[in-house]
Design brief:
Layout (H helix, E strand, L loop, with lengths): L3 E5 L4 H13 L3 E5 L10 H4 L9 E4 L2 E3 L2 H12 L3
Parallel strand pairs: 1-2
Antiparallel strand pairs: 1-3, 3-4
Helix pairs in contact: 1-3
């Protein structure tokens, strides 16, 4: 199983729920902290991941998702075995 990369901010509730769900599913995850105070979410490299410059974003292989609700649905449909 490949590792999912989660771009997040520690104080973001939307990031927290994605991180919690990844933990519940037991999926290996690399956490990347996006420094909102320094404008990291508005840099060109990050805007390629999310054109609105928001967190969270996940990268799972070739899939990149940037809306927390869409991420939760994606994770549930792909990885939840219950």
């Amino acid at each position: 199983m490949s590792t999912i990369t989660l771009y997040r901010h520690a104080l973001s509730g939307h990031s927290h729920r994605v991180e919690a769900f990844l933990s519940i599913l037991g999926l290996p995850t690399d956490l990347v902290n996006v420094d909102l105070a320094k404008g990291a979410h508005k840099q060109a490299e990050y805007l390629q991941k999310n054109r609105f410059g928001q967190v969270p974003v996940i990268e799972d292989g070739s899939a990149t998702l940037s809306d927390s609700n869409a991420i939760l649905v994606y994770l549930a449909s792909k990885y939840d075995t219950q």
